[in-house]
Amino acid sequence: MASRLNLYDILGVSQNATADDIRKAYKLKALETHPDKLGPGADEKEVAAAEAKFRDVRTAFDVLSDPAKRKAYDNGLNFIRRRIIVNPDEVQARLARERAEWQRQAELRHQERMRVLREEILASQKRYQDTKAQAELRYQEKMKAMEEQLQINREAEVAAVEVKDKPEGSYTLVDELLSDLRRRSPEWELRRQKVLRVNRASIACVRLIKETC
Predict the structure, then answer these.
(1) Cβ atoms 22, 64 nearer than 8 A
(2) How far apart (Å, rounded) are the C-alpha atoms in residues 156 and 150?
(3) What is the pLDDT of residues 130-158, one digit of tens each?
(4) Residues in domain J (predicted)?
(5) Cα angle at 178 between 175 and 179, to 5 degrees?
(6) What does the domain layout of the chain look like in residue ranges?
(7) How confident is the model at residue 5 (pLDDT cuts 50, 70, 90)?
(8) Confidence (pTM)
(9) Residue 121, CA distances (Å) to 45, 111, 115 in order
(10) Which DSSP symbol is given to 16?
(11) What phi and psi values does residue 34 have, to the nearest 5 degrees?
């Protein structure tokens, strides 16, 4: 019976009953359900049923007569009643709203992650392009310097060969031509002087090595 009825129903009182009402109701129910009221001809099933009813009455009184136990029981009873009277359609609608909100939040988080990823990719590409441009610029500057140095070396070699191959009596004319070239192209003279300094330094190093050996 206790599994089908709540404790107030067992005692036959309302949930708003006072402590005195509960005590009076218990006395009446105890007299009604006491197994001793059964006649001597009662069988085992009747005795067992009477004992079960009496235990339910006793349990109901033990709980409802104690203020702390009654409060805890009332809280649980009210919670169960609220769950019973909830509209299933409202529950489904609430679950649908919560599911839709969760999906919306998940989509926002996904979009934010994709935005951050795109920004990182663009920044990485820009760093790569900047590094590539700087490397290309350094390469071009290095190649230009090498070409200038090769040109200086070729001009110095040509000038040296021309002077060496001239007859002894023609050095005056060569000197005049070189002097005119220096006047017309000061840049060429600067390159020639630079090559001569390098050559003199190289010759000095070779001599020093030979002397030390």
Answers:
(1) yes
(2) 10
(3) 888 888 888 888 888 877 777 777 766 66
(4) 6-77
(5) 85
(6) 7-85
(7) confident
(8) 0.38
(9) 82, 15, 10
(10) T
(11) -65, 135
